[in-house]
């Protein structure tokens, strides 16, 4: 744990690169004053392979650390992941393929998941499953699997790419997630539907969508009817991708194409 001494970014890279047996890495309250500098993030360097890392927690950490180090970490076994930053956090973490690979294991082991969008200077998607980091940061064994991250996105296309990255990363683990409930909250934005995430949640029993724009209702009906991205049938045998789903709630301030949605919902319920 780093609490008092702040290493230069190149020194931090060297420490992590030479610690392949590391199981827990935490940094707390590492925010620089205006006259401090951690140096320039390393460029053209090898990834940081941490095959035994179980917990990665960076809370209130300078964005130069997040941008310089997190994209380099390869830790497919990481089951507890908490990343937030300083006041500039919203631009700190990009939705790269390596980021999706880093958070995949924690999603696989989560029991519940919450997705949402925040808009300020930058649009961010947050992914949370309320992981528990023990108050005694040295006691890594009591950390519960889960994820809490924000990802800065610059366009709807970037969000679609994020869902693809997550789908591929989840597939690479070769197992379905343990997620029993998902809550999704969009606040007026037209957000691409997360087909590839839901396709990895066969144990899902509760799904809640709060979408003020209402644009995700029809894609949701299509998905539940057995159609994945671009209308591809994802489950030709049962025609229902979430066989354990017992509770579905959708709320919105307006519903585009209401007649089409009503017709689709009626057809789905009559099966």
Put the structure in a nutshell:
With 271 residues, the chain is an alpha/beta fold. It has 7 helices and 11 strands. 25% of the residues lie in helices and 23% in strands.
Topology, please?
Layout (H helix, E strand, L loop, with lengths): L8 H9 L6 E7 L17 E2 L5 E7 L1 H7 L3 E2 L5 E6 L11 H12 L3 E8 L3 E6 L17 E8 L2 H17 L8 E6 L8 H4 L7 E6 L5 H8 L22 E5 L6 H12 L2
Parallel strand pairs: 1-3, 2-4, 3-5, 5-8, 6-9, 9-10, 10-11
Antiparallel strand pairs: 6-7, 7-8
Helix pairs in contact: 3-4, 6-7
Structure description:
- With 271 residues, the chain is of the alpha/beta class.
- The chain contains 7 helices and 11 strands.
- It has helices at 9-17, 63-69, 97-108, 156-172, 195-198, 217-224, 258-269, and strands spanning 24-30, 48-49, 55-61, 73-74, 80-85, 112-119, 123-128, 146-153, 181-186, 206-211, 247-251.
- The chain has a 9-stranded mixed β-sheet with strand order 1-3-5-8-7-6-9-10-11.
- Strand 9 (181-186), helix 5 and strand 10 (206-211) form a beta-alpha-beta unit.
- It is elongated.
Descriptive terms for the model:
271 residues; 9-stranded mixed β-sheet; 23% strand; alpha/beta
Tell the overall outline.
elongated
SS elements, strand count: 11
- Cα end-to-end separation: 55 Å
Q: How many helical elements?
A: 7
